[in-house]
TrEMBL record:
Subunit structure comment from the entry: Homodimer.
The species this protein was found in: Nocardioides gansuensis
Designated name of the protein: Triosephosphate isomerase
Localisation: Cytoplasm
Catalytic activity: D-glyceraldehyde 3-phosphate = dihydroxyacetone phosphate
Entry EC no(s): 5.3.1.1
GO MF annotation terms: triose-phosphate isomerase activity
One Gene Ontology term from the biological process aspect of the record: glyceraldehyde-3-phosphate biosynthetic process
Binding site for substrate: N12, W13, K14, G182, S222, G243, G244
Phylogenetic placement of the source organism: Bacteria, Bacillati, Actinomycetota, Actinomycetes, Propionibacteriales
Keywords: Cytoplasm, Gluconeogenesis, Glycolysis, Isomerase
Entries under CDD domains matching the protein: TIM
Record pathway: Carbohydrate biosynthesis; gluconeogenesis; Carbohydrate degradation; glycolysis; D-glyceraldehyde 3-phosphate from glycerone phosphate: step 1/1
Function in brief: Involved in the gluconeogenesis. Catalyzes stereospecifically the conversion of dihydroxyacetone phosphate (DHAP) to D-glyceraldehyde-3-phosphate (G3P).
C-alpha cells in the first residue's frame, strides 16, 4: 500500500452482538492486540457495532483508554425532528464515533439506498466531524459482464458528489464487490487492485493529487487472517472492511496484524 497512508482495519459487525457481547469482544480484541504490542499508529483498528452497542463500547474505550476506534453502520440524512427510527450524525458524534459507514451494499439492496441518499448521508457525517466510509462495488451480473470498473466509478461519482478536494482527502472509500460479501468468495488481490486503483485514478482526475494520495481505499468481501496479507500487498488497497471475520477475535486480530501473516 501507499507509504503515507495509515492502513485501516474496520470491523463491520452488521446486525450481530448485543451490548454485553460487544463489550466482551472489544475487551478480547484489546487484550489480543496489547499482548502483541500492537502499534495503533501503524495500523488503525476500528469496530462498527450496531447502534445499540455504541454507548457500551464508548464507555469501555474511554474507561480503559483503548486505542481502538469505533463508529456506526449507518446514519440519517436528516438533522433532527420527526423521523421515527432514525439516528442523526449529531447523536453519533456525541457518542464519540469517528467513522460512519454509508452506502453499504446491504443498505443499497434491502433499503433501496441510491447514490443520492448515500451522498447526503456522507455529507451529514462529515459535517458532524466524522469520517464517512463510503461503500461501492458491483454485483455478480456486472462482474460477469466485465463492467466492474465503470459501474463502481459511477457509484463513486454519485456518492462523492459535491465534496471538496480537501474533504475527499480525509475520506475512506470501501470497495466491496457484492458477490464476495459473506460468500467465502474472496476477490483475488489483482481483482481488488484493479478497482481500487481505478477509484484512486478517478479521484486524482476529479480532485487532484493531494486527494488521491490521501484518501484511503479499503477492500471488503470475505477477508480473513489467511488471505489478508496478499490483498494488503496491493498498492491501492489501504485496509479492509471486514464482516464475518470481525466477530472472531483471533481472525480480526490477525487481520490487524496483516504484516505478520504469510502471503498465500
Ligand atoms: O460486507 C462486508 C463488510 O462490510 C464484508 O463481509 P464479509 O467479510 O462477511 O464478507
Amino acid at each position: 500500500m501507499g507509504s503515507t497512508r495509515t492502513p485501516l482495519m474496520a470491523g463491520n459487525w452488521k446486525m450481530n452482538l448485543n451490548h454485553q457481547e460487544a463489550v466482551v469482544l472489544v475487551q478480547k480484541l484489546a487484550w489480543t492486540l496489547s499482548d502483541k504490542r500492537h502499534d495503533y499508529g501503524k495500523v488503525e483498528v476500528v469496530v462498527l457495532p450496531p447502534f445499540t452497542d455504541i454507548r457500551s463500547v464508548q464507555t469501555l474505550v474511554d474507561g480503559d483508554r483503548l486505542s481502538i476506534g469505533y463508529g456506526a453502520q449507518d446514519v440519517s440524512f436528516h438533522d433532527s425532528g420527526a423521523y421515527t427510527g432514525e439516528i442523526s450524525a449529531g447523536m453519533l458524534s456525541k457518542l464519540g464515533c469517528s467513522y460512519v459507514v454509508v452506502g453499504h451494499s446491504e443498505r443499497r439492496e434491502y433499503h433501496a439506498e441510491t447514490d443520492e441518499v448515500v451522498n447526503a448521508k456522507a455529507h451529514k457525517a462529515l459535517a458532524a466531524g466524522m469520517t464517512p466510509i463510503v461503500c461501492v462495488g458491483e454485483g455478480l451480473d456486472v462482474r460477469k459482464a466485465g463492467d466492474q470498473v465503470s459501474y463502481t466509478l459511477a457509484q463513486v461519482d454519485g456518492s462523492l458528489a459535491g465534496f471538496t478536494a480537501e474533504q475527499v482527502t480525509g475520506l475512506v472509500v470501501a470497495y466491496e464487490p457484492v458477490w464476495a460479501i459473506g460468500t467465502g468468495e474472496v476477490a483475488t488481490p489483482d481483482d481488488a487492485q484493479e478497482v481500487c486503483g481505478a477509484i484512486r485514478a478517478r479521484i486524482r482526475e476529479v480532485h487532484g493529487d493531494a486527494a488521491a494520495d490521501g484518501v484511503r481505499i479499503l477492500y471488503g468481501g470475505s477477508v480473513k487472517a489467511a488471505n489478508v496479507a496478499g490483498i494488503m500487498e496491493k498498492p491501492d488497497v489501504d485496509g479492509c472492511l471486514v464482516g464475518g471475520a470481525s466477530l472472531q477475535v483471533d481472525e480480526f486480530g490477525g487481520i490487524c496484524r496483516f504484516y505478520d501473516m504469510p502471503v498465500l
